[in-house]
Fold:
Amino acid sequence: MLLRRGQRFRYNRLVSRQPQGAATSPPPLPPPSARPPLPRRIWQSMILRGPVVPTTDRDRAFVTEHTLLLHLRPVKLPARTIRFTHTFGLGGSSLVLITILAVTGILMMLAYQPAPGLAHDSIVTIENGVLFGPLVRGVHYWSSSLLVVVLVLHASRVFLTGGYHGPREFNWVVGVSLLVIVLANAFTGYLLPWDQLSYWAITISTGMLGYVPWIGASLQRMARGGADIGADTLILFYTVHTSIVPALLVVLMAFHFWRVRKAGGVVVPPPLPGRVDAEPEKVMFLPHLLMREVSLALVITAAVVVLGAAVGAPLGAPANPGMSPNPAKAPWYFLGFQELLVHFHPVVAIVVIPLAGAIALVLLPYFTSDDEPAGAWFLSDRGWRAARVAVLAGLVLTPAAVVAHEAVSRAWPGATNWLTAGVVPLAAIGAGVFVFLRALRARFALTKNETVQTGVVLAAVAFAVLTAVGIWFRGPGMSLVWPWQR
Ligand code: HEM
Structure:
């Protein structure tokens, strides 16, 4: 291994800092005359001045510190944090999916044309006239839906292991921004095929903005790039989708990863039952974590390739502004909000509830306690038992409330004013949740963080049920139907 003077110093210093499994004194460096063969020298001059396949901890440390991608990671990390069930690799999976989206998206930009008369035809060309076109489009489509799911799971994992407390609180805020940006990208991409499904989904979603008091009309105009969905909307969505959001994503993701490093890695889980290790045991990043990450990346890539090849991406008839499908639904990840619109006054459904939810989500780390233990799933046994009750309550009460409201609105179809569809139901739900959380707190002797966790689990399950109702149980006129009757 040939090293220059500065590198030799860093290398020796690094080696002397590696207690675990490392030799106590560095091995003698090969004499300058023992130069490797030319191809290896070229490779080493470009990429890596160490061994390609490191076999000792000393070499692994060197490779980790001296390669472009690996040097972003620590040389060693607490063994407990790399247990698969601690993070399920969800943050890394998000990065893999974003990379796949970037590659497949750039490929499609070579053929796609962002104009109403041409967009649908160019997608047909990608599907029928471009080598591997359907596969590339299918992989892009499935990666984007999977990314939304994986990100929600990642945020849930961080939340349920208490990974959002100090010193990670601002990284939680960055994460929430990333989630919003990814949703914005999924949403803007939805319009690009310019078929009936996408045209009307975007019409419905941007139409919801019109309910915002005072500024609704301006917001709607801004989102559409004009009064109606047309050429200006398409070019606006295309630019946001292919330039603005990706640029923001790169900047925010870099910041996100940097914050994870600065916080000393992910939150450390407690030792396994029966083990007491005050100072968590450490393992080398390479190969322990790297191998897991590479394996996971391969599994995810295989999954989206199989889905893309076997199922592909849907494409309906070209957009027809004169004929709306019935029901006209928003993209699936916004159907929870569309479902709220069925039950509440529009201002409550589109402004009050989402705004309150977003503010609560952003401020979550700042109104919970940093002093309570974190790192274990559901924080503790008590937290886990209370969360199970909350999941059960959400799964039973939300569909019951949907069905009950459907019956009530059939009996009194006109009762949709501020009082009957806003203040009264909101107050009733708020009071019910308050009593429920107090009862659970007393029953399980919950701490502050465990009580907040229980409340968030209840709200998240309720919203997931509403989304499922919107996807599978709403038929013509948004009436309730069984999935097989849609
Ligand atoms: C583009 C989207 C995102 C990417 C690529 C990403 C990636 C990652 C990675 C690789 C980690 C470390 C390993 C892991 O936890 O799996 C991490 C940790 C973290 N992420 Fe994300 N993330 C994203 C979005 C989010 C979102 C939506 C949230 C929250 C709403 C979030 C909050 C956090 C926090 C607080 C940590 C530190 C957790 C801890 O220490 O346990 N991230 N993220």
Summary: Residues 14-24 have pLDDT under 50 and may be disordered. The chain has three domains: 5-72, 84-325, 334-486.
